[in-house]
Every structure is written in structure tokens, then in C-alpha cells.
Amino acid sequence: MADEERRFREDFLKLEDASHKYDADELDAKGFKAVSTSFGGYLQRGDLQMLRIRVPGGRLSVEHARAVVECCRYYGLEQLKITTGEALQIHDLDSHAARRLVLRLLDAGIVTFGAGGDNPNNVSAPPLTGLSNESRFDVLPYALATEECYLHHVGVSPLPRKFKVGFADSAEDETHVTMKDLGFMANPDGTFQVWIAGGMGIKPRMGLMAAESVAPTQVVYHALGMLELFSERGNRTLRAKSRSRFLQESMGADQLLEEYRARVAALEEAGGLDVPLAPSFPPIQKAGDGGAAPHDWRVVAQRQPGLFAVRYHPMGGYLSVGALQNLVALAEPWDCVEFRLTPHGGLYVVNLSSAEAWKVLEATLDGARTPFEASSTCVGHRRCDIGVADSQELMRECVAAVREAGLSARALPCMGVSGCMSSCGDSPIAALGWRGMRRKVEGEMCDAFALSIGGSCAQGCERIAPEECTMLASDIPAFLVELGRAVDASGMDFNEWFKGHADELRAMAAAYALPEKKPAARKVVPGGGASGVK
User: Fold this and answer.
1) Which sign does the torsion angle of CA 318, 322, 324, 327 carry?
2) Helix 219-233 / helix 140-151 crossing angle, nearest 10 deg
3) Which end of the chain, C or N, has fewer beta carbons within 10 A?
4) CA-to-CA distance for 183 and 157, rounded, in angstroms?
């Protein structure tokens, strides 16, 4: 890390130069973004900026969390966003604070380099890997090894586009590794399946399984093999088709797999990149206090006897600096406690005794009360400079309506809410997914969302759900209340109900749907073809 840190500090001069030129109107937004994103910086709406922090494997130490709080307090910042890539975003920065924070965080051992732009982004892992009873084995050491490998490549040679990597440790596939540029799925026998060239956004596509049984010691060879292939074969001329999933079109599945395997074999033959084999489950030097676990859906009994994890999902994934500061103050005196970010915009506080779990539970009562309220929601168009519809406002309105209706915690699923085609809220693979747009209704432009039904990332049940209809944002809360009441009346939870009532759900949605948008008529000029082309 020392060599990378030295290089990052040297490269920082590029950001400083671009920032000064942008402030002086000597560089436009596109030119500034071409530089700033590699340092984790993005422009927001309203001439403010955002800085994204890498949190490898989603694991955030209490020490690093305290450093983030101190940096935010120094610049008077109040808002953080937990991303679906398990990174942290600091919002509402002015130009000076944005560039100063890059170095201030680096001084604390926190990296923003490569957290955005055409780089390998933050490597994600399940928040409770090695801690939950469903975990096949602890994949975090291998996610951290992959992250360390990729940091060597950040800023050295830009990729065609961003590159997302994840590790999964159970059939739930919480980090949806089969839908990433590169994904590692843990097998029950202690090996990994490897998936390549998947992704969401425009033309989402499931990845290809490139290897069935890879030893954990070999993950870096696969990580580098896919990175090299994407760097050389990715589309650098058309950004709309530059993500790795489009290699399935340009190369064909067979050729893509053949070249990938050849590259990995060549790297393995050269050797020198083996990762040390880690224990299947982490030994935690802490005993429980013998107390009973709180009876709450947010509390998880860890596989380590007497220890617990408590889930906290701030509304919309927006974590206030004050809330994080309170959690840090609680956790600092406790042994072995750390934070694990989730790919839905929340976090777990892990390795808690029973008494500690009670205190964390009481300190986080302002968060989601049900899995539905913990829906994955993108940052929202009020901050995102490419956002279209207000995903955050939609989620707030839905939560308020569902609470007022008194629906049970089992009535509605965890949703995916995205403000545009980029699908940053993971809408295509959610049980109920919403993708934002604008539609003209009675002469006025209004927020609307396309609904997809029945998406899944669970192993063996993967499904990218097609969009079924479009609703006005203002009608969606009423639709969800009607749906939730139908589920509650059945005595089942949503997933059970959906298996036998999918057609009923679709009919219910159709009653709220906007009319299908008619294709624009093609203008025909006499003597010419469509659009006047002769």
C-alpha cells in the first residue's frame, strides 16, 4: 500500500490542476469529470460535488468511521450515502473541500482513488460473511486480496469503463455476483465459481460462468485475467457499449470464455500471485455475556456463540454524520466491533454481546422498520447530475403510505428503486423494481417509474425482470398499499403469496398503469423516404 499511496499523492496534482481550471471556467464539466472521477469525485446538481470512498469488502473499522466523521465535521458536512457497491459517498462539498478531503482521508488510511471513473471500483462482499450461519465460508480475505491487487492498477491505464467486482458466500447472492463484470460465488466445498461479463444498466445481462471450482488461493489470477481482457477488448469508442457485458455481443460467449481462460492459465503458469488460505470462519477473540438476544428482525445471531449483529438501514440509504458519530461513540469501548456496509444501502454493527446489541438497537430506531423500508434506493436526481426521476422522494412517500395503512412487515418485499436507466438501485433484479423516467400528463412533465416484477439474484433462480408497465410516481404508494393489503389478507408473506398470485399482481398493476407511449410518427417527405432521406 505504501507504493500506491505515494503514487496517489503524486497523481493528486492532476486533480488540483483540473479543479482550479474548472473553478476558473477554463475547463468544462465534461473535462473536469474525466479527471475527478478517478479520485472518487463527481459533480452534483447545484454546482456542488460528491466524494466516494472505497470500503473494501464493505468492512469499515471503527477507527476509519471516526476519521470519516471528523473529516465531515471539519467541513460542516452532514450527509453520507451508502452505495450498492458498499462504498461511502460524502455529499454537498464545495470545490476546495472536495479536493482537500482526498488527502485528508488518505492521511487516515482511507482511499478514494479509483472509487469512480474508468477503474476497478470498490470490491464488495456479503456483510455477514464468515459470521452468519448461512455463510459457506468467509470470503472477505479474498475480496480484500482482490482489492489490494486492483489498487496497483488504479490510474495506471484507464479501462474502457468502470469495472465492478463482488464476492458471494451463499445461495442468497446478496452482492449479485452473477450480474457483475467479475463475480466469485462460494461453493459449499470451499472453492469458487467465477462469473464474468455481467452487469445492469442499459441492456442488463447476466454474466457467464467461466470456472466452476477455483481454489481461493487462485482468485487474483482470475481477477487480473478478466481485467486484462476487458482492458484490451472492451469498446473504447462507444461508451454506451463499453461495459464488459457487451463483450458477450462483440466477441460471442464461446470466444470470450476461451480467451478469458487462456489469459488466466498464462498468469497461473507465471505464478507468484497466490493468496494465503484463510480460516473458513474468522476466529474472534471475544465471548458473549450470556444474555438473551433482542427479539427483532434487525438482530442476527452470529455463528460465533454469544455474539450478535444488528442491522441499521437509514432511510433511502442516506446516513447522517450524526448517526455515524453516535455509533462510533458506542462502539469505541467495545472489543472486536466493526461496521459492515450492505449492498442495499445499510450497515451491520457486528461482533456484539447481548448487552451491546440492545444498545445499538436502541440507538438506531430512526432506521427502516421492515425489509420493505430497507429497499435499495439510488442517490436521487436532486443530487445525481444524470438522474431523471426522484427515487428518494418516491421511497419516502411509499414508506409513509404503508405505515399509515398499518401493513404488516411481511406484506411487501425489499424493492429496488432507480432514478434512471443506470439502475443504481438494482431495480432489474428486485422482486419489485422501479426505473425512473419523465412522462407528459395533461401537458405537464411528471415523474413516472417503469415497474419490473419478479427479479432475482438468488443462485439458480437468477432473473432480470422485464418492465411490465409504467406508473406515475404519485400513484405508486396507493398501488403498494392495495398490494400489501391483499398479501396480508392471505396470511402469507409476499414471497409465498407471489408464487400463486403473480397474475393477480400484474392485473393490480395494470389498473394503475399509464397508457402505453405510442411511437413517434415518422415524417415522410414527398419523393423521399422516412425522415426525408431520399
Assistant:
1) negative
2) 40
3) C
4) 22
**Residue 257: alpha-carbon gap to chain centroid:** 26
Beta bridge partners of 452: 433, 467
pTM: 0.94
d(CA 460, CA 189): 17
Cα(10)–Cα(487) distance, rounded to whole angstroms?
A: 58
How far is residue 83's CA from residue 115's CA, in Å, rounded to a whole number? 11
Query: 414: closest CA among 369, 384, 448?
Result: 369
CA distance 351 to 336: 6
How does strand 182-186 pair with strand 165-168?
parallel
Supply 85's cell numbers. 457497491
* DSSP tag of 76: T
Amino acid identity, position 504: E
Q: How many CA atoms lie within 13 A of 274 on its CB side?
A: 9
In order along its 534 residues, the chain shows pLDDT tens digits of 678 889 999 999 999 999 999 999 999 999 999 999 999 999 998 889 999 999 999 999 999 999 999 999 999 999 999 999 999 999 999 999 999 999 999 999 999 999 999 999 999 999 999 999 999 999 999 999 999 999 998 877 789 999 999 999 999 999 999 999 999 999 999 999 999 999 999 999 999 999 999 999 999 999 999 999 999 999 999 999 999 999 999 999 999 999 999 999 999 999 999 999 999 999 999 999 999 888 999 999 999 999 999 999 999 999 999 999 999 999 999 999 999 999 999 999 999 999 999 999 999 999 999 999 999 999 998 999 889 999 999 999 999 999 999 999 999 999 999 999 999 999 999 999 999 999 999 999 999 999 999 999 999 999 999 999 999 999 999 999 999 999 999 999 999 999 999 999 999 999 999 998 755 544 444 443 333 332
CA 534, CA 523: separation in Å to the nearest integer?
13
CA 488 – CA 406 distance, rounded (Å): 10
